[in-house]
């Protein structure tokens, strides 16, 4: 079984915030696969579908971001999910808005949800999809920034990023993390450059 976890905070007041981009990717996948993520288990909501000859579980932790590891470790241990079949989707302030990067392993950086997962699993050896949200102008305003909403100008980039991340999940499940990195990391960089160039052209035309 593959376990795909999107990180975020439960509650309507957090809908659409930068910190909930992982939840938005899961929501996009559920619409694409016509399933629901509503089963309550292991401190989260889950839903299952089958594709590419695989059983895939989608999950949203209900612990709030800083304790995401309780849900992830609970599901990994209960269903005996190999860490190579685990994929975490989350926001990353170290990437520009709209950037999408897949990594095979690594530290949690400044992300408290990822730190919690690594601590709970006792390992960094699992894949992740990082979605760039950029950094606040004032470093001291980090909490308000990640719990804030995207600027309208970032909307198209973020919508594209969510779609790309969902594609990355399909490639990860079907073909593995190496091919997912090769396809998504390179393609997203090219697509963003084209988007920015077109945006600049429109400014000049106006």
UniProtKB/TrEMBL annotation:
Database matches in InterPro entries: Pept_tRNA_hydro, Pept_tRNA_hydro_CS, Pept_tRNA_hydro_sf
UniProt keyword list: Cytoplasm, Hydrolase, RNA-binding, tRNA-binding
Active site: 19 (proton acceptor)
Family to which this protein belongs: Belongs to the PTH family.
Record-annotated site: Discriminates between blocked and unblocked aminoacyl-tRNA: 9
Positions bearing the site annotation: Stabilizes the basic form of H active site to accept a proton: 91
Example GO biological process: rescue of stalled ribosome
Gene name of the record: pth
Enzyme type, top EC level: hydrolase
Gene3D superfamilies (UniProt xref): Peptidyl-tRNA hydrolase
One GO CC annotation: cytoplasm
Reactions mediated catalytically: an N-acyl-L-alpha-aminoacyl-tRNA + H2O = an N-acyl-L-amino acid + a tRNA + H(+)
Subunit structure, interactors included: Monomer.
Organism: Acetobacterium bakii
MF terms in GO: peptidyl-tRNA hydrolase activity; tRNA binding
Full protein name: Peptidyl-tRNA hydrolase
Keyword Hydrolase: yes
EC number: 3.1.1.29
Function: Catalyzes the release of premature peptidyl moieties from peptidyl-tRNA molecules trapped in stalled 50S ribosomal subunits, and thus maintains levels of free tRNAs and 50S ribosomes.
KW tRNA-binding (keyword) present: yes
């Amino acid at each position: 079984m593959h376990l795909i976890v999107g990180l975020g905070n439960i509650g309507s007041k957090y809908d659409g915030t930068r910190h909930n981009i992982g939840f938005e990717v899961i929501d996009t996948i559920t619409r694409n696969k016509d399933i629901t993520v509503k089963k309550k288990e292991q401190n989260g909501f889950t839903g299952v579908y089958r594709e590419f000859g695989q059983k895939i579980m989608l999950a949203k932790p209900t612990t709030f971001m800083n304790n995401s590891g309780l849900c992830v470790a609970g599901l990994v241990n209960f269903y005996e999910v190999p860490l190579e079949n685990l994929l975490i989707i989350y926001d990353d302030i170290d990437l520009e808005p709209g950037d999408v990067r897949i990594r095979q392993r690594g530290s949690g950086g400044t992300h408290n949800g990822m730190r919690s997962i690594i601590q709970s699993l006792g390992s960094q050896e699992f894949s992740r999809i990082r979605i760039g949200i950029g950094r606040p102008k004032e470093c001291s305003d980090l909490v308000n920034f990640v719990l804030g909403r995207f600027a309208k100008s970032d909307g198209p980039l973020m919508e594209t990023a969510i779609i790309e991340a969902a594609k990355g999940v399909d490639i990860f499940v079907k073909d593995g993390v190496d091919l997912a990195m090769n396809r998504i990391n390179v393609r997203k960089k090219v697509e963003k450059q084209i988007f920015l160039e077109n945006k600049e052209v429109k400014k000049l035309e106006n």
